[in-house]
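If you are new to this repository, start here. Below is one unmodified record pulled from the training split, so you can see the exact layout before writing a loader.
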Amino acid sequence: MARSSKKVSRLVDVFRDLETTERARVGELARQMGELRSSEEEIIATLANPSAVHEPFLALMSRSLGNIQRRLQRLSREHEAVLARYVQAAARTRGANSLLADVRAEEARKAEQRELEALLEFQQATAAQGRGKSTRSS
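And here is the target side for that same chain:
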């Protein structure tokens, strides 16, 4: 049974690693989206109040704003997909942890049962020897 516990434990470790990977991806996408939103706000502020320095670049800035918005949409869709995978990975990890707890409980129950059976055999052997009989004759 200990082999089962080890196998399930390794499975839990794999699921935990997958969950950590997905969590890192969610964080990285959120960071990228935050940076893009910040850039977008800066460009919008500059376009709203253009100065003489910025005037020659207004067309480039508006094109850049469009690119940023498209990239934000793409990252947003990707973020949703990664978030869904993260939720699934977390659920798999919880399920594997539950399975591991069940396997360990079963192993403990069987070990306790073996100990009780050994104790009963010892008591029977002791009782038989006390009566002068061998354990094989009973």
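Two things worth knowing about this chain: Residues 58-130 form the longest helix (73 residues). The two ends are 32 Å apart (CA to CA).
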